[in-house]
Design brief:
The structure holds 2 protein chains of 2 kinds. Chain A is of the alpha+beta class. Chain A has 15 helices and 20 strands. Helices cover about 30% and strands about 25% of the residues of chain A. In chain B, α1 packs parallel to α2. Chain B is globular, with a radius of gyration of 14 Å. The chains are: A alpha+beta, B alpha+beta.
């Protein structure tokens, strides 16, 4: 038992803590964390937010928190909550976040670390030129592509000449979220997004050249297409201003609608309505269109990345071998069928800073990886490792896993600790090249601002959420 | 400027005080954009005007901050000068905002994705007081 901010937490195992039902909670809270990670939970508001999420109408089993949990706004970052649709379960835009379908894409390559290091500066310069990033405008794809992208996601981008057909099979939802309605996207959201299709953004978004350092599961690595010593590229970004505005618009509408549905929540950011309501369907249609923007965005950025590698090494795009390992979202609500009390039940599964992690045999997975389970991509902080994991059978959180290392300190504290130029020098001393639009902002994303990603991965494994496949080491990072 | 930056693990927040509700809105606008950059002096080269109607003061704060955030991104401007006029019963606000193109600004903070309702406070104490968190 431990007490945090007046809340009781019961130790169930060395990697699981439950918050008993009290007050208006409909289910317990359930935090997957080691003792070391729980120290960070104790020091902030995240556990309170786990309790608040447990108030959502129709929530089943528990309000979950992944090992990288930290203080968010409404939902904690690393929060998972599933609501039973037929029982009036709700959908909450706060359970998806403003950056709808923010996620991670990982590309393989034929290149070794030595080959990349010999041309690293050229690669970094090429990527800095080719990848629009930072504050302000700049995009690869034309605004005219937007309507089709909102409806069909990465498929639209592929047909417009970006990427390769193999990119779709290894993308979550095959690059298209069904049920999208471009008409549900407001004029404001369209305007924000029209010059951002094929852009990285800023903040914690990045494009990173990495090398597969350690393979922990050779069979899974081989099935995914990974090998020790292989250079890979990881892209982290989402739906940009279009998604941010869509969530803003929908929260405003939903706040008014909640009263009509007789719903109250402890935090306005948890505004929600029944999935099977006019407002619920409208939100899911808009969310899906925004998700399609994000799939297409990462698809287009991957295409640009391949071209930079091809040009730098004097080979064809096909010659780079940069096929897609996988693309996962970590801010999305999905309608999925899971077993609840022994019965298959349609759930609205919210993953806010959490990654889907389907286990072996899940039908949605491509044939070549279905026996292994879904790749789960977990970026660490700048300068530390990232990980590829695989989904496990009997996942205790509706097929969900962590999405990152999880922040440890506020941006203000991170900037106070060290100036950006010192962070850059330390990264370069550690052998990691950095290209950034703002040196000042590097401090906010410094390694010391995040938790120990290896600890997060270890807890994922021990908790049955996802199993480690390969550890990736950074060689160069491009940031906004 | 009577604005204090708040600590939040993932995001950014501000709290502000002012003698009037209109003054509070102005401080919040200045505070929000100062999280991104604080050009000195604020020599605005372009001005826009917005009008926002809302059902409550809390909604008005979120809505007007969101509207200026939208214009900032779409017009590619860092706003730093504001003229605020609040309507009857604090149910609406008219803002004239002056800004500088982002490529002429030394950015010191991440772009703001959105204004959140998390922990939102707007109330009259001895002065008007507000607390707002942003997703960055």
């Amino acid at each position: 038992m431990r007490q945090t901010g007046g809340m009781e937490m019961v130790r169930v195992s060395d990697v699981r803590w439950d918050i008993p039902v009290t007050g208006g909670m409909r289910v317990p809270g359930r935090i997957f964390a080691s003792d070391a990670l729980m120290e960070h939970v104790d020091s902030e508001e995240a556990a309170r937010q786990v309790m608040n999420v447990a108030h959502l109408p129709g929530i089943v089993e528990a309000s979950f928190a992944m090992p990288d949990i930290h203080w968010g706004y409404g939902f904690p970052i690393g929060g998972v909550a599933a609501t039973a649709v037929a029982a009036g379960g709700v959908v909450s835009p706060g359970g998806v976040g403003f950056d709808i379908c923010c996620g991670v894409r990982l590309l393989a390559s034929v290149f070794s670390e030595a080959e990349v290091l010999s041309r690293r500066q050229e690669l970094m310069d090429g990527l800095a030129r080719a990848i629009p990033r930072g504050v302000g405008r700049g995009s690869i794809a034309p605004a005219a592509l937007m309507p089709d992208v909102l409806a069909r996601g990465a498929v639209a981008a592929l047909e417009a000449g970006y990427g390769v057909p193999g990119d779709l099979a290894r993308c979550e939802e095959h690059g298209t979220t069904q049920g999208a309605d471009p008409a549900a996207i407001s004029a404001h959201a369209l305007e924000r997004g029209r010059h951002q299709l094929g852009s990285l953004g800023a903040g914690n978004h990045f494009l990173e050249i990495q090398v597969v350092g350690e393979v922990h599961d050779p069979d899974a690595a081989a099935a995914f297409g990974l090998a020790e010593g292989m250079v890979v590229v990881m892209v982290h970004c989402g739906s940009r201003g279009l998604g941010h505005q869509t969530c803003t618009d929908q929260l405003r509408t939903m706040g008014a609608a909640m009263q009509r549905h007789g719903i109250s929540v402890p935090d306005r950011q948890l505004a929600c309505v029944p999935v099977e309501s006019k407002e619920g369907r409208s939100y899911l249609a808009a969310m899906s269109a925004s998700a399609n923007f994000a799939w297409a965005n990462r698809h287009i950025l991957a295409d640009a990345t391949r071209k930079v590698f091809a040009e730098t090494f004097g080979v064809s795009v096909e010659g780079t071998g940069m096929r897609l390992i996988y693309d996962v979202a970590h801010n999305l609500a999905k309608l999925e069928t899971h077993e609840v009390d022994g019965l298959p039940t349609l759930l609205c599964v919210h993953r806010k800073g959490a990654t889907r992690a389907f286990g072996p045999g899940w039908p949605e997975l491509a044939d070549d990886i279905r026996p292994i389970g879904q790749p789960v991509l977990v970026p660490g902080s700048m300068g530390t490792a990232s990980w590829v994991l695989r989904g496990m059978s009997e996942n205790p959180a509706f097929a969900s896993a962590a999405h990152g290392a999880g922040r440890l300190m506020s941006r203000t504290m991170a900037r106070r600790r060290s100036p950006g130029r010192v962070v850059r020098e330390e990264l370069e001393t550690a052998g990691i090249a950095v290209s950034t639009g703002s040196v000042k902002l590097l401090a906010e994303e410094a390694p010391y601002a995040y938790k120990d990603v290896d600890e997060v991965i270890d807890v994922c494994h021990r908790a049955g959420l996802a199993a480690p496949v390969a550890r990736l080491r950074p060689l160069g990072v491009v940031k906004g | 400027m009577s604005v204090r930056v708040l600590s939040h693990t993932a995001d950014s927040g501000i709290e502000a005080t002012a003698a009037s509700f209109g003054g509070l809105v102005g401080e919040l606008l200045r505070g929000m954009f100062s999280l991104i950059a604080s050009p000195e002096p604020c020599a605005a080269t372009r001005w826009i005007a917005v009008h926002v109607d809302s059902q409550s003061r809390e909604d008005l704060v979120v809505d007007v901050l969101s509207e200026l955030l939208y214009h900032s991104e779409v017009e590619d401007l860092l706003f730093c000068d504001f003229e605020v006029v609040v309507g009857p019963r604090d149910g609406s606000v008219d803002v004239r905002a002056g800004g500088i193109p982002f490529d002429a600004v030394d950015v010191s903070g991440p772009p703001i994705k959105a204004v959140t309702y998390h922990g939102l406070v707007v109330e009259q104490r001895e002065e008007w007081y507000a607390r707002v968190y942003f997703d960055v």
